[in-house]
Amino acid sequence: MDGKSTGTGRGGAALATAGGENRAALIGYLPGGFPRVPGLIGALRGMIDGGVEIVEIGLP
């Protein structure tokens, strides 16, 4: 590998875009269902509105 693999899908596209602009991508993380599903959706929207390019949702 060349160390520049970006994966596939939208996440890979976001990483490729950031790399092409010589910067890091902003990646946010939330645990799944936290604090509750409606709250999670609101938090996700807030993260995206705040400029997060990739959201990772972890399952406990």
Automatic annotation (TrEMBL):
- Write down the Gene3D superfamilies for this protein, in alphabetical order: Aldolase class I
An example GO biological process term is: L-tryptophan biosynthetic process
Instruction: Spell out the protein name for this chain.
Output: Uncharacterized protein
- What is the native source organism of this protein? Amycolatopsis antarctica
